Amino acid sequence: MKEFMIELQRISSFFALTIGAAVLVGCSSAPRVMAPVEDRIASSRTGTGVVDAPAAPAKVLPGAENAGKPGYYTVQRGETLTRIGLEHGQSRRDLARWNNLSNPDVIEVGQVLRVAPPGAAVEASGVVVRPVTSSAEMPAATPSAKPAPVNPSAASVVADEGLGFIWPSNGTLIGGFDDSKNKGLDIAGKAGDAVMASADGQVVYAGSGLRGYGNLIILKHNNTFLTAYAHNQKLLVKEDQKVRKGEKIAEMGNTDADRVKLHFEVRRQGKPVDPAKFLPAR
User: Fold this and answer.
1) What CATH number is given to the structural domain containing 236?
2) Three-class SS state of 121
3) Residue 252, domain extent
4) Domain contains 156
5) How many CB atoms are located within 10 Å of the residue 117 CB?
6) What is the mean pLDDT of the chain?
7) Ramachandran region of residue 161, left (φ > 0), alpha (ψ -120 to 50) or beta?
8) Do residues 53 and 44 touch, judged by C-beta distance below 8 A?
9) Domain match, 257 and 184 both
10) 229, 249 Cβ separation under 8 angstroms
11) How many domains does the chain have?
12) How does pLDDT run across 56-88, given as a tens digit for each residue?
């Protein structure tokens, strides 16, 4: 019995010591406080703390101040200087010079280019008006002369400004002009057949950089007219070269075409017109 009482006292003492230690530990431990987290997103929005970097200013493209003005053109996606020149009746070299382009092959979408000669008067429609430079160039008026009667049939004939266009190939006509589908005439032939200059002029383009035309030559005849000769297998002239009417400038081929043929265009002030109206009857 005595031994039992001693064991019970020992167990009671053990539990008392354990509970006391727990109480001491609990009393001595300070409560944990979470450190504040800085809300960087909120602080940037409210103007405190971290501030966002200012947005970069929008790039101003060359010629932006001339956008929409007659005689200027805004570059669209996929266009080249050659294409723009063809559409406005100008040479790529002139466009590069008028716009101070160090590399004619690099233009940007949205860039505004001068497409009319500096100093030329340009109508709102974009047509270049060639002013008379001197009154001495005009024929003297005859006081007694009467106005010549207007011939309705002659009035319908399109003037070629004395260029006297000829057929650029002796092949068979296989495709006529259609303002929405075909910007010129298609003339059949054999590979290597002669392609001739339709009038006196200067080569303003000779290459294959214009999509859909293959090996192409563009001649400038004056400030009004250009002619284009497409799908050739071989080009026989170079840019800036002067050529005479009837001179062989290329050999017929099928580059970028479904068959051997010459695609021939006449451009008046850059706009395609029906070449048949300028060519002699066969």
Assistant:
1) 2.70.70.10
2) strand
3) 173-277
4) no
5) 14
6) 79
7) left
8) no
9) yes
10) yes
11) 2
12) 677 778 888 999 899 999 999 999 999 999 999
